[in-house]
Amino acid sequence: MPSFNEEELFKAIILDHYKDPRHHQLVDDSGYKRINMDSTTCIDNIDIQLLMDGDIIKDIRFDGESCAISTASTSIMTELLIGKTREEANEIIKNFNNMIFEKDYDPEILEEAIAFKNTHKQASRIKCATIGWNGIDKLLNEK
């Protein structure tokens, strides 16, 4: 029986979401809020769209130029947050950021996003892993 290798599992999750990103196409619909997020340290320059139905996240879309880490992380984020309430999404985002910055977090609610738990070991990848999350946080909580 093969031994469980967490690092290989995380790489497989990231590669899957990079090669086949979910919700990776923008829509022409004025009902969506939209934000552009770009990075000064990487090629990342993505547009993120958010569609709310009352307090429920109905859809999240993204597209643009982005590295493997940014694409995979944002893809996983869309899967995690669609269907959640604003409050649930904020809790997931908080836990993701806590994980990235080595603070206390609940791994259970992060599902596949746990694949980024070692991102802190490569400081240059933190911005890549969080760019989509930061964008959706801004859209969810803009006044």
Structure description:
By secondary structure, this protein is an alpha+beta fold. It has one domain: Sufe protein. Chain: A, CATH 3.90.1010.10. It is 44% helix and 17% strand. It contains 5 helices and 3 strands. A 3-stranded antiparallel β-sheet has the order 1-2-3, covered by helices on one side. Helix 2 packs parallel to helix 5 and helix 3 runs antiparallel to helix 5. It is globular, with a radius of gyration of 15 Å.
Tell me the distance between the termini.
Answer: 53 Å
Largest β sheet strand count, sense and barrel closure = 3 strands, antiparallel
Oligomerization state? single chain
CATH architectural group: Alpha-Beta Complex
- As a whole number of angstroms, the C-alpha radius of gyration is 15 Å
Percent in helix = 40-55%
Task: Determine and state the CATH class.
Answer: Alpha Beta
Task: Assess the beta-strand content as a share of residues.
Answer: 15-25%
Helix and strand content put the structural class at alpha+beta
> What does the average pLDDT come to?
94
Give the strand tally: 3
Give the overall shape, derived from the CA principal axes.
globular
Order of SSEs: HEEEHHHH
What name does the CATH topology carry?
Sufe protein. Chain: A
| Total of domains | 1
Write out the strand line-up for the largest beta sheet, numbering strands in chain order.
1-2-3
Low-confidence stretches: none
Number of discrete helical segments = 5
